[in-house]
Structure to design on (1079 residues):
């Protein structure tokens, strides 16, 4: 039996039927990671000792006949931007290379309560800034489908490790597409829930009004299962919404009849690869055959989303990342004793500047400066306030569209995975690769990336299904129906 | 040429909450360094703030007390600047939609003149921690216990025109904050801090010259000293036709002057923007009404009432209203006087005199607040009623006051125990007078020669011989009669 | 490429952000930021004079907590990650010289 290929719900059944132990599952996954992750570099930190301990504990519970949760004894990987008590949390940055949190994020508390087995922390673009996982202080992460290409980003490690069978499922975070885009490029299912659906407490902030935790899984059923565990109101997060959490597995219905699907004309633009466009159109055709009603809709402000995003996100980031200064935790320059270099700054400012200069990578610096500029005296209204207003227009577009349809279907990314190094020196080109995912974050909506085909080079292509606020259920139903009637999710990359 | 100062104040008061503004850490003063700190107030990666409802309540009270218009949808903003005692390197404050604005505080100037001092806005924000600078200058130490304690910032309009007005304003404001229990206002613990904006212009002009901001004012005394010094400095400059620049100055405790703040930093560019982690606060009419109902009468309003209703004098009212506790004590006594001893001559005047007089004197001598003594309104009323009924004389009453304050014994009981009931029997007093007159022929002679103090000497001797229990009026009357016929 | 932000602006912004840029870096960032800002100018095509800004996408308000005290972590935990500490304090280079 190839345990590593299994989904979480398959493993759960094996555990309940006592055909296998959690220790066996966990051990076999680690064996695979130890053997093959050198090629991919999807993990920054492994927590084997505590994981095996946890697995043994779950096995004891099972042997005693205790009831277990759907994730009990199931290994899971965590993006290294989620705070884990006593487990180093680097955010892919040198500036947190020695930082060991003293508290767990709310999602981690929930996973621990559900007895999930935490495998380790996954590689990512530094502070989630990037679309390729090339901006990591811990080395580039590679795409299991072709190791000369990027896995997408910023949650590249979390996507790649599920695609490479280094974990049955994982958590990531999505600020402008950081779950959906790597899910699409790695051929796995990636869900970004509605803003406020999953607590952000313990998710290290990049852009607070856009960030949301979500999951990577091998199929849609697992997406529903993990969402059941992590969703819900949290009194520690003032932006978490006190809405009821439905049982999402009840939405796994193989039925597209009466489903109204909107297809926005603005998402089929020049710059999108022909292969991607064709694949998405095929998927729409599939839905049509399954009985869905397809409507053309318009989201007229789509083309302004990237520009608005690159004001809002960097502005918030410039403030969120101010705390990394070498005072209370994290990296501090070794040169602090040298004092002021050039008379006009004090020793403390010198320490700050050296620490941040040495601790941050270029992309992070670029965005901090961009955001600082947008907020600085005299520019606030022209940039930041303007962007917030455009955000309103984009949100209104979706509100209008959802009066006519249940879900909206679009591509996830204009192209399949690109080559490592291809866009790294051209920030704007890199930013534009998130053109289809960014509007969703600006509007705070839930959206999924679903495997829907392959390029001629054998690279996966993803389909984005966007839902109304807090209507993850409808997204899951549409996705489940598509998955049940296609086989794209079953194909695996060859790693050996 | 005559000049006048134009002064505005910025007041920071720590709100009296049990926990910090955005986390559940204690706000108690004086704990060991970094012992009241958690992931949230130390700004660890990933933490989020949640607003303390008590702080919001205090803000509503402050806004009402200062006659401000409360912003119905108030929001938080981030103020970005780097300092080691500010672990996030931004302070959560309010810039674009402050909690309340456009209010005033009426102050009573000398000679009963009243003046309204405008309040520009009040807003809620978190405090920073404390830095300690090592004496060798080689390092600084940071304590985050104070980080995140809720502060109300009150910004006045530049309506103050003299250090005297500033003093009255500060007193009035502190009374209000103390009274409403919004803040404990302990300047020595940093609960109340001031910054002043000062400019000087030719009298009669209406424009606002560039203002000088003075920071680091840690006591009422220093605020006044610094303002006086700054007025003098700017006036001298104007007389010499020098230009006063807009700048930030610090009070130099050692030299007793204000000095230019040495700054290696660029001009402040705080880059305010809406705090994405906190949704807006909606302050409803019902919430405001509810708090209004529960709010204590403000000290300035109460003072007006005391003066008009009880015809209290300015001196007594100032002492009785200096804190809420004493004023409540006074009113409790009044109520008891009317209910418990109907028909007796317990008058508000007597109660005021006793509180402002002997009781306050005792408290000052022993440096203790009223709450730490054992006296109750009942005991004070009882004591006064004993005097008014003529059962004891004023002196006896004053003599037993310490025992009531310290031991919480009922006045009646003390009087009974010590046999201090006043002697009013004329026969008994007459005998005592006769005895004293017999023993003091020399004094009688002096009296006859016109020495007035001879008479008071004789009264004193009679009182002494009766252990102070004789009714002084009777003693006076009898002595006079007997001296005349001698 | 438009010259929206010049070298001096970049230096100012870097200083505000507590980032010290070295010679070539300033030029590179100036160039890159100009490219991005030029793209962002796109926003000016839109008339937003009648549009309200969205700072919070979910219409929540009035989230408050009770004034209940909870125990704080130990000083050891608080200082666990401190790069430098002394007698229970965080230690930093001199703030005032």
């Amino acid at each position: 039996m190839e345990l590593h290929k299994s989904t979480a719900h398959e493993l759960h059944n094996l555990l309940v039927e006592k055909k296998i132990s959690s220790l066996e599952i966990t051990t076999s996954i680690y064996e695979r990671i130890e053997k093959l992750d050198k090629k991919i570099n999807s993990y920054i930190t492994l927590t084997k000792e505590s994981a095996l301990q946890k697995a043994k504990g779950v096995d004891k519970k099972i042997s005693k006949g205790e009831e277990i949760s759907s994730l009990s004894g199931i290994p899971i990987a965590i993006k290294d931007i989620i705070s884990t008590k006593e487990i180093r949390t680097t955010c892919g940055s040198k500036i947190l290379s020695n930082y060991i949190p003293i508290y767990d994020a709310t999602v981690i508390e929930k996973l621990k309560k559900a007895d999930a087995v935490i495998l380790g922390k996954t590689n990512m673009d530094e502070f989630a800034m990037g679309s390729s996982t090339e901006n990591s202080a811990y080395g580039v992460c590679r795409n299991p489908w072709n190791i000369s290409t990027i896995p997408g980003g910023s949650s590249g490690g979390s996507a790649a490790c599920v695609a490479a069978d280094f974990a049955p499922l994982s958590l990531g975070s999505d600020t402008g597409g950081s779950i959906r885009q790597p899910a699409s490029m790695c051929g796995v299912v990636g869900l970004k829930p509605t803003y406020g659906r999953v607590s952000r407490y313990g998710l290290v902030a990049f852009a607070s009004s856009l960030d949301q935790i979500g999951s990577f899984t091998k199929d849609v059923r697992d997406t529903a299962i993990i969402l059941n565990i992590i969703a819900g109101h949290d009194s520690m997060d003032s932006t978490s919404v006190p809405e009821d959490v439905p049982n999402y597995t009840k939405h796994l219905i193989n039925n597209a009849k009466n489903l109204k699907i909107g297809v926005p004309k603005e998402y089929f633009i020049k710059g999108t690869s022909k292969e991607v466009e064709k694949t998405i159109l095929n998927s729409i055709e599939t839905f049509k055959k399954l009985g869905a009603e397809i409507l053309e809709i318009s989201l007229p402000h789509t083309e302004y989303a990237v520009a608005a995003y690159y004001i809002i996100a960097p502005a918030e980031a410039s403030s969120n990342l101010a705390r990394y200064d070498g005072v209370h935790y994290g990296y501090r320059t070794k040169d602090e004793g040298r004092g002021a270099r050039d008379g006009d700054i004090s020793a403390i400012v010198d320490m700050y500047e050296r620490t941040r200069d040495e601790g941050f990578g270029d992309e992070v610096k670029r965005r901090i400066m961009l955001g600082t500029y947008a907020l600085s005296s005299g520019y606030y209204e022209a940039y930041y306030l303007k962007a917030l207003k455009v955000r309103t227009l984009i949100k209104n577009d979706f509100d209008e569209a959802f009066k006519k349809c249940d879900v909206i279907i679009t591509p996830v990314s204009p192209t399949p995975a690109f080559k490592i190094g291809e866009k790294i020196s051209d920030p704007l080109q890199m930013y534009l690769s998130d053109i289809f995912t960014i509007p969703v974050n600006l509007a705070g909506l839930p959206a999924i990336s679903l495997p829907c085909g392959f390029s001629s080079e054998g690279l996966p292509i993803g389909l984005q299904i966007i839902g109304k606020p807090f209507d993850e259920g409808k997204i899951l139903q549409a996705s489940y129906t598509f998955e049940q009637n296609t086989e794209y999710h079953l194909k695996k990359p060859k790693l050996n | 040429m005559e000049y006048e100062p134009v002064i505005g104040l910025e007041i920071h008061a720590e709100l009296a909450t049990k926990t910090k503004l955005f986390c559940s850490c204690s706000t108690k003063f004086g704990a060991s360094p970094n012992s009241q700190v958690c992931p949230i107030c130390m700004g660890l990666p990933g933490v989020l703030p949640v607003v303390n409802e008590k702080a919001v309540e205090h803000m509503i009270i402050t806004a009402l007390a200062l006659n401000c218009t409360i912003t119905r949808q108030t929001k938080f903003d981030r103020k970005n600047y780097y300092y080691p005692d500010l672990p996030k390197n931004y302070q959560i404050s309010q810039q674009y939609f402050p909690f309340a604005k456009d209010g005033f505080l009426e102050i009573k100037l000398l000679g009963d003149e009243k003046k309204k001092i405008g309040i520009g806005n009040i807003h809620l924000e978190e405090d920073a921690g404390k830095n300690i600078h090592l004496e060798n200058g080689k390092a600084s130490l940071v304590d985050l216990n104070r980080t995140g304690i809720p502060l109300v910032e009150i910004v006045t309009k530049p309506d103050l025109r003299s250090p005297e007005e500033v003093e009255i304003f500060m007193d009035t404001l502190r009374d209000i904050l103390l009274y409403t229990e919004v803040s404990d206002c302990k300047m020595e613990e940093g609960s109340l801090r001031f910054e002043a904006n000062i400019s000087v212009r030719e009298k009669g002009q209406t424009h606002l010259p560039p203002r000088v901001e003075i920071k680091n004012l840690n006591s009422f005394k220093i605020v006044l000293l610094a303002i006086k010094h700054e007025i003098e400095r700017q006036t001298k400059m104007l007389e010499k036709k020098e230009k006063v620049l807009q700048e930030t100055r610090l009070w130099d405790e050692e030299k007793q002057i204000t000095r230019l703040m040495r700054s290696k930093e660029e001009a402040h560019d705080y880059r305010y923007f809406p705090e994405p982690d906190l949704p807006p606060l909606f302050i409803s009419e019902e919430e405001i009404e509810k708090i209004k109902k529960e709010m204590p009468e403000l000290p300035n309003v109460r003072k007006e009432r005391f003066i008009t209703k009880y015809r209290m004098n300015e001196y007594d009212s100032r002492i009785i209203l200096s804190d809420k506790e004493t004023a409540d004590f006074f009113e409790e006594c009044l109520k008891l006087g009317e209910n418990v001893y109907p028909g007796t001559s317990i008058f508000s005047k007597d109660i005021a005199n006793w509180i402002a007089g002997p009781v306050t004197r005792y408290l000052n001598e022993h440096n203790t607040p009223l709450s730490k003594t054992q006296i109750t309104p009942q005991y004070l009323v009882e004591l006064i009623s004993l005097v008014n009924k003529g059962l004891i004389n004023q002196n006896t009453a004053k003599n037993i006051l310490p025992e009531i304050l310290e031991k919480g014994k009922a006045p009646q009981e003390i009087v009974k125990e010590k046999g201090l009931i006043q002697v009013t029997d004329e026969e008994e007093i007459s005998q005592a007078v006769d005895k004293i007159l017999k023993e003091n022929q020399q004094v009688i002679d002096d009296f006859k020669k016109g020495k007035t103090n001879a008479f008071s000497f004789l009264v004193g001797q009679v009182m002494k011989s009766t252990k102070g229990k004789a009714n002084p009026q009777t003693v006076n009357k009898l002595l006079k009669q007997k001296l005349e016929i001698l | 490429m438009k010259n929206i932000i010049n070298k001096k602006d970049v230096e100012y912004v870097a200083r505000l952000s507590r980032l010290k840029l070295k010679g070539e870096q300033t030029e590179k960032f100036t160039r890159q930021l100009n490219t991005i800002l030029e793209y962002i100018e796109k926003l000016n095509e839109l008339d937003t004079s009648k549009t309200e800004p969205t700072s919070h996408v979910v219409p929540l308000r009035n989230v408050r907590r009770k004034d209940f005290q909870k125990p704080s972590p130990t000083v050891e935990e608080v200082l666990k990650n401190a790069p430098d500490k002394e007698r229970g304090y965080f230690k930093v280079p001199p703030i005032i010289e």
